[in-house]
Amino acid sequence: MPNENRRGGRKQRRGEASNSVQQPSSIQPQHRFEPLRAVSEDELESIHQASLKVLSETGIAFLDETACQQLADAGAVVKDQQVRFDPEMIAELISTAPNEFTIHGITPERDFIMGGKWITYTAVASPPFVTGLGRDRRDGNREDFRNLIKLTQMLNCLHTTAGYPVEPTDIHASVRHLYATHDAVTLSDKPPFVYSLGRQRNIDGMEITRIARGVDQETFNSETSIFSVINASTPLRYDTVMLHGIQEMSARNQAICITPFTLAGAMAPVTVAGALVLQNAEALAGVAYTQLVNPGAPVIYGGFTSNVDMQSGAPAFGTPEYWKACLIGGQLARRYGLPYRSSNVNAANSVDAQSMYESVISIWGAIMGGVNLLLHGAGWLEGGLLASYEKMVIDSDVLSMVNSMLEPVTVDDSTLAVEAIAEVGPGGHFFGSEHTQERYKTEHFRPMVSDWRNYESWDESGRQEAHQRAEKLAKQLIDSHQEPPMEEDIRAELDEYLERRVAEGGVPTDY
C-alpha cells in the first residue's frame, strides 16, 4: 500500500523544495464533498442506453487483427474490423475493472492511490512547444524537457508527469522515448508515463521503470508502476498503436487511461448530450477491451469532451460546455465504478487572465465532478500546444489552494475561539492574540505567487506581475533540484539499457 507519509497529510518528503521556495508539503488530497450532478439519474441512464445502442448498432472500428479476433472470440460481432458489442457483453467485461488501485512510484514515498475519493494531479503533457524562463515560444527540446521534469519533481502538489511535459523534438523519434523515460526516472522519483505509439515503446517504458524501481518481473507485473493514455480516434475508431498499448500494458497490470477526444461540433455531435454519448460509447469499448486482455487490469475512465469555436474551428476549453461535460463525465464514471480522469485546460496563448479563468473553470468542473486523475494539472497553454514554466507554477498554486479547501474544517472548543473573542473584546483586533499567534505558522496557507501587500508598500523593486513572480520561482525550483538518490547498480543497469537500445536503433518510425 502507499506510504503512510502520504496518507498522513503535510509531512516532508525527499526532494521537496523546502529550502528554496515555501510551499505546502506533498499530500494526496481526497474529496470531502459529494460530487455535483449536472443531469438526473434518468437522464444519465438515457446517455448510457444511447451509448450502448451506438455500440450494438453502429459499432466501433478496431484497427488490429489480434484485437478483432479476441473480441470475436468473446462474442462481439466483427466484420471488416468494425466491432459491434452486445450490451450484456459490455456490462460483463467492465464489471471486472477495479474501482481503486495503487500506482507505485520509483521510491515508495511516491506511491499514490488512483480512484475512490483520492485525487491525483499531473504536470502538462505532450505540447510540441514551450515558453518561459525569459525566452519566447520555441520548439520542444531536451533541455526544456529535463527542466520541466525537474520542476515537476520540485512542485510538491504534483504527483506524476503523465507524459512528456514538452516533446523533446531535438532527439530522433526512434530513440526519443528511451532518453525521455531515462530522464524521467533519474530526475524524478514520481511514477513515469509511456506513450502507446507502438509495442516496443511500451515494452521499453515498462522495462526502464522496472529497473529504476529495482524490482523483478513478477513484482513489477503485480504492482502498477507506469501508465499510458489511450485515445480513441474519434469518431468511433481505435488505431493499431493504441490497441497494441492496451495489449502490452493491461497484460502486465499497468494502468491504462481510456480517453476519447470528443470535440462537440467537430469530431462529435454539436450538443453536449450527443458528444457525451459518443465519448461514453468509445470509453466503454476501450475499458471493455482492457478487461478482455486481462480481467482486473487497472483502467481509468477518461473524459475530454469540449467544444470548438464554430467560427474558426479551433478547440475551445474552459467553456460552460466543457464544465458540464466534466460533471456528467464524472457521473458516468461513478455509474460504472471506475476512476475518473479530467483535465486542467484552456485555450489562451499566454499567461494572462483568460488562461487562469478558463483553467479555474476546468479545475472546478473536474473537482465538482469527482475527478481522480487531473491530467495536465499544471502548465498547459494554447489548447495544449504550449507548455509554460510560469503557468506550471501558477497552476500549482491553484491546486494547492484546492487541497487546502478540501481539508476538513476542525470544529471544537479550541477552534470556536470563544475565549479569544472574549479576550479581544469590542473594537480590538486578533493579530497579536495568543490564539492567532500559536496557529499562524502551522495553519496559515500562503500561495507561492500571490502578492498580498497593499499598493502603498508595493515599491518599484517589488512591482511584478504574477507571471514575473512565477518565472522567478520556477528558476529557483529548477536550480534547487537534485536527482533523487539511486543505488549505483540500478543506475548502471539503467544506463546500460539505454545505451544498448539506442545502439540497436530504438524503434521503427516508418509507419
Brief descriptors of the model:
disordered N terminus, 13% strand, globular, 511 residues
Explain what this protein looks like in three dimensions.
This protein has 511 residues and is α/β, with parallel strands linked by helices. The protein has 18 helices and 19 strands. It has helices at residues 4-7, 41-58, 65-73, 87-94, 142-154, 176-187, 199-213, 217-222, 240-251, 272-293, 320-336, 353-368, 389-406, 413-416, 418-424, 434-443, 466-479, 488-503; strands at residues 60-62, 77-79, 82-84, 100-103, 112-115, 120-123, 129-132, 135-139, 227-230, 237-238, 255-258, 263-264, 299-302, 306-308, 315-316, 340-343, 373-378, 380-381, 386-388. A 6-stranded parallel beta sheet has the order 6-17-16-13-11-9. Strands 2-3-1-10 form a 4-stranded mixed beta sheet. Helix 4 (87-94) packs across helix 10 (272-293) and helix 7 (199-213) runs antiparallel to helix 18 (488-503). It starts with a helix and ends in an 8-residue tail after the last helix.
Number of β-strand runs = 19
Total of helices: 18
| Relative strand content | 5-15%
Structural class: alpha/beta
Contiguous runs where pLDDT drops below 50 for at least 5 residues = 1-19
**N- and C-termini, Cα separation:** 41 Å
Question: How much helix is in the residues?
Answer: 40-55%
Strand count, sense and barrel status of the largest sheet are: 6 strands, parallel
What's the gist of this structure?
It is built from 18 helices and 19 strands.
Q: Can you lay out the helices and strands and say which pair or pack?
A:
Layout: H1 4-7, H2 41-58, E1 60-62, H3 65-73, E2 77-79, E3 82-84, H4 87-94, E4 100-103, E5 112-115, E6 120-123, E7 129-132, E8 135-139, H5 142-154, H6 176-187, H7 199-213, H8 217-222, E9 227-230, E10 237-238, H9 240-251, E11 255-258, E12 263-264, H10 272-293, E13 299-302, E14 306-308, E15 315-316, H11 320-336, E16 340-343, H12 353-368, E17 373-378, E18 380-381, E19 386-388, H13 389-406, H14 413-416, H15 418-424, H16 434-443, H17 466-479, H18 488-503
Parallel strand pairs: 1-10, 6-17, 7-19, 9-11, 11-13, 12-14, 13-16, 16-17
Antiparallel strand pairs: 1-3, 2-3, 4-5, 7-8, 14-15, 18-19
Helix pairs in contact: 2-10, 4-10, 5-6, 6-7, 6-18, 7-9, 7-18, 9-10, 10-11, 11-12, 13-17
